[in-house]
Amino acid sequence: MDRLSNNPDYELLEEDIGTEDEAVYVASQWRLIWWKFRRHRLAVASGIVLLIIYTLAIFCEFISPYDPTARNVMLTHAPPQRLRFVDSEGNFSLRPFVYGYKREIDPNTLRRTYSIDTSQKYPIYFLHRGTPYKFWGVWETDLHLFGVQDGYVHLLGTDRLGRDMLSRILYGARISTSIGLVGVALSFVLGVIIGGFSGYFGGWFDSIVQRLIEILRSIPTIPLWMGLSAALPPHWPQVRVYFGITIILSLIGWTQLARVVRSRFLSLRDEDFVTAARLCGASRFRIVVRHMVPSFLSYIIASITLAIPSMILGETSLSFLGLGLQAPAISWGVLLQEAQNVRTIALSPWLLLPGVMVFITVLAFNFFGDGLRDAADPYAR
Amino acid sequence: MKRESVLLEVKDLVKHFPIRKGFLKRVVGQVKAVDGVSFTIGEGEVLGLVGESGCGKTTVGRCILRAIDPTSGQLVFYSNNGLVDLAALSEDQLRPLRAEMQMIFQDPYSSLNPRMTTKDIIAEPLVCIAGMKKKEAEERVAELMRLVGLRPEYMRRYPHAFSGGQRQRIGIARALALNPRLIVCDESVSALDVSIQAQILNLLQDLQEQLHLTYLFISHDLSVVEHISDRVAVMYVGKLVEVADTEELYSQPRHPYTERLLAAVPVADPKVKRGRHQLKGEVADPANPPPGCLFHPRCSYAQDICAAKQPELQNVGKDGKEHFVACHFARELELQGVQAG
Ligand SMILES: Nc1ncnc2c1ncn2[C@@H]1O[C@H](COP(=O)(O)OP(=O)(O)OP(=O)(O)O)[C@@H](O)[C@H]1O
Ligand SMILES: [Mg+2]
Q1: Ligand 1: does its nearest atom lie under 6 Å from the Cβ of B55?
Q2: Which residues of chain B are modeled with pLDDT < 70?
């Protein structure tokens, strides 16, 4: 042993190691992925956007100034109010405020028009005690992020019944963004189990699964979704419809994941390091859990991320067409469905803001997922 | 020193890969990757296994270690706990035996899991077979790393921190972890730079002498095999065509295929005349082998009988030496070898 440790190769080894940064040498897969991902500016920015959107969705009751179903009949189709720090006389105040509206009704067309009324000044208070609600349906409280003592604040305007659009969009975010996650979680479970079995054991099971996937994927998605959601009983409670829709959405979603998992399993099964693990006496379970799953987990996470937008779009389209969730449920799709006429677009364009939210979320997921996918294999040579 | 006692006896090893086609994956033929191979390896011996690409060398090595399941045949292994037929054991029965037989792979990149630290890679057999605890395993890993010429301080590094040659040392350390007796080296130096090849080859040779290891050394590089092997087996399309002591096989080959292989070896010294018989023609298709002697379509000495009858592997050695050849004209032909050097 001594003879070996003193041989010239050993000297040589010391020389060509130790010149570079030790941190890189001991960096785990996840650290390398993070380093690679970090360089992808757009993806990082998208990640932050998503973080914000999900924070808003999670705390929507607290962040919304109003109950999303509360109506202000005197203030229907009101445009967004501007947040101000300087009043009409040029006085600056640190506390932001909004001006109220003066409502006029055109005697000919009976159309309401709103003009800013500088005599009504409503200062905004933070951590304001407003309408009571149950946070996550559990804790009773009346604390809101912000609100006004008297008057009203509708930063994103109101809809045809005078409901606060900001509150509605925030509540809608909870359903629309979570439907993507739940749907993907379902797809993930189905995809990983079925794809894993298919790839690891192969044989007739694999053949059947592959044919099934091909059939499922050759059906155009939108008509399939429409057909299936039309079949949901109309008297179902909202929660059940919600889960019905997610299941319908993940019916297609799992196929893609199953394919990814299967092909990874197939290629990994014949990798030398897996053979080596087997020759080292590793059990089947250990090989799958210690060697195979860590090797493709990052790919799975990337494909999951890329699968979420189509779920969100799926929910939005179905609800928009009146086949998914329906009022009184609040999702971005439902909100868009309510905004569904030409008059709205011309006269109350702020009612289309849920569509902007869908757009931003989907785009952010796509950029984020692209970044993840590029970073998923930090060992690419 | 060699052939004191037998360690492994391969008897009539066969491995056919089914060719499947179509929707129902029906079997439409068989790739006869290994088709009736028999040989023995003595304790402490290095047996070289050579042949062109695709002739089944890797398949033999993997069957012996049961990385793949042989179609038929026996693999009699003289283990520490007595005689076993490796081919007949289940995966669970094999596990304890895996301590005694290991593999050193060709590709130092794909054979190490990039997501595990060097320590975890080398400790894999310690944990899986010997059931060692972390602390215990770590000490052994450090010892092994020193043994193969790596600094134990680097055990927390991932494989990406190392060069090809260093990675191969990690692979060697892993193979040595539980003091194996038999090691299958499948092209273990072929993927490395020429300068590194010599280092790793010397390491393998040192370890073999020091730890009294037995190697099945698979390579298509005849000069590497000549350097390290006591005996050499030549394989062609799933069958052995010649087995003899290294020196004898290189200087007096008895099979036309061996002669051609030797003649095709590039020589550094231009004054030495070699390469009269270049290796021409395609290797026969193992899914559809020719009748008679598998080599006859490429053999310049072929006669009628070669296309009709398959020659058996027979001992033609003189003075009590063993020299097995599968050729109808093994005793008649005067073939040219190379000077040992
Ligand atoms: N898993 C497999 N399925 C089908 N055929 C296979 C499989 N593995 C090997 N073969 C075939 O078996 C034959 C022998 O392959 P093998 O890898 O043993 O050759 P080899 O002598 O090691 O070649 P090389 O020098 O290229 O490594 C080849 O024709 C190959 O195509
Ligand atoms: Mg090979």
Answers
A1: yes
A2: 1-4, 23, 266-279, 339-341
Q: Give this prediction's pTM.
A: 0.82
* Residue B15 exposure: Cα atoms within 13 Å on the Cβ side: 24
A267 touches B: beta carbon within 8 Å: no
In short, whether B31's Cβ falls inside 6 Å of ligand 1 is yes
Number of domains in chain A: 2
In a domain? residue A63 = no
Q: How many residues does chain B have?
A: 341
Q: What's the pLDDT tens digit per position in A49-74?
A: 999 999 999 998 899 988 888 888 88
- Is the pLDDT reported for residue A380 higher than 80? no
Distance from residue B58's CA to the centre of ligand 2 (Å): 4
Question: Within an 8 Å CB–CB cutoff, is residue A289 touching chain B?
Answer: no
Tokens for A278? 């087997």
Q: Whose CA is nearest to atom 2 of ligand 1?
A: B17
- Same domain for A84 and A212: no
Q: Chain-wide mean pLDDT for chain A? A: 84
Q: Is the Cβ of B293 closer than 8 Å to some Cβ of chain A?
A: no
Under the phi-then-psi rule, with left for phi > 0, alpha for psi from -120 to 50, and beta for the rest, what region is B73? left
CA distance B52 to B102: 24
ipTM for the predicted complex: 0.90
Phi and psi for B233 in degrees, rounded to 5?
Answer: -115, 135
Per-residue model confidence as pLDDT tens digits over A347-357: 888 888 999 99
Which residue among A4, A275, A281 sits closest to B98, beta carbon to beta carbon? A281
Q: Is residue A126 domain-shared with residue A248, that is, in the same domain?
A: no
CATH code where residue A318 lies? 1.10.3720.10
Which of B15, B69, B53 is closest to B37 using CA atoms? B15
Q: What is the pLDDT of residues A170-179, one digit of tens each?
A: 999 998 898 8
- Spatial separation of the C-alpha atoms in residues A175 and A325, rounded to whole Å: 10
- The model's pLDDT over B165-184, given as tens digits with 9 standing for 90+, comes to 999 999 999 999 999 999 99
- Ligand 1 center to residue B286 CA distance, Å? 9
Asked if the Cβ–Cβ distance from B203 to A9 is below 8 Å, we say yes
Question: What value does the mean pLDDT take over residues A88-107?
Answer: 84
Please tell me if the CB atom of residue B56 comes closer than 6 angstroms to any atom of ligand 1.
yes
Q: Are residues A360 and A331 in the same domain?
A: yes
Range of the domain at A175: 168-375
Does B53 contact ligand 1 (Cβ within 6 A)?
yes
Residues A150 and A84 in one domain: yes
Q: Is the residue at A44 inside a domain?
A: no
State the ligand closest to the CA atom of B52.
1
Taking CA atoms, B200 is separated from A7, B114, B145, B150, B170, in Å, by: 12, 21, 14, 12, 11
Residue A41: pLDDT above 70? Answer: yes
